């Protein structure tokens, strides 16, 4: 019988931004986004975004590793909003979790749940009043188990 690998969870380092970006790319590919629908400069675009939100929106990422190899990650930040926010922080200071990804062989072991929990804890520590995310079909059961509930977001696709 083979030994169960030890999974180590920790905060990601700046040097792992490329890996976080690659996980974000793979997340979209796993959700059936065709390569031709992803910009050729996706890596630079994601890295620029991470740098911006690190400076402006308290970005942090967390990773899971096995034998010193990162096999999963999750990112979080303050939610920048889609419209002007006239509310005080104690009324509405939202955190946003994105890019939760686990390599295929390690899925179904609670890794995404642990990474998401770490992101939630961080967002609590910076006094967020709510955490939001957009779940993939595969991720929805993870978030349901963590207490996330569907919101009132509505969507209309206007192109075929």
Automatic annotation (TrEMBL):
Domain N-acetyltransferase: 7-160
Entry-linked SUPFAM superfamilies: Acyl-CoA N-acyltransferases (Nat)
InterPro entries assigned to the protein according to its UniProt record, in alphabetical order: Acyl_CoA_acyltransferase, GNAT_dom
GO MF entry, a single one: acyltransferase activity, transferring groups other than amino-acyl groups
Gene3D superfamilies linked: 3.40.630.30
Domain of life: Bacteria
Matches recorded under Pfam families: Acetyltransf_1
CDD domains assigned to the protein according to its UniProt record, in alphabetical order: NAT_SF
Name this polypeptide is given: GNAT family N-acetyltransferase
Source organism of this protein record: Pelatocladus maniniholoensis HA4357-MV3
């Amino acid at each position: 019988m083979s030994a169960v690998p030890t999974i180590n969870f920790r905060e990601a380092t700046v040097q792992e931004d490329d890996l976080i970006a690659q996980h974000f790319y793979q997340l979209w590919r796993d959700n059936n986004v065709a390569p031709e629908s992803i910009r050729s400069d996706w890596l630079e675009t994601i890295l620029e975004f991470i740098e911006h939100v690190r400076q402006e929106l308290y970005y942090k990422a967390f990773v899971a590793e096995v034998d010193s190899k990162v096999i999963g990650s999750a990112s979080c930040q303050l939610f920048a909003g889609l419209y002007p926010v006239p509310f005080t922080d104690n009324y509405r200071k939202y955190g946003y979790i994105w890019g939760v990804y686990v390599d295929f062989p390690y899925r179904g072991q609670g890794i995404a749940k642990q990474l998401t929990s770490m992101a939630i804890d961080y967002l609590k520590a910076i006094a967020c009043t709510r955490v939001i995310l957009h779940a993939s079909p595969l991720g929805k059961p993870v978030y349901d188990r963590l207490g996330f509930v569907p919101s009132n977001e509505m969507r209309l696709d206007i192109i075929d």
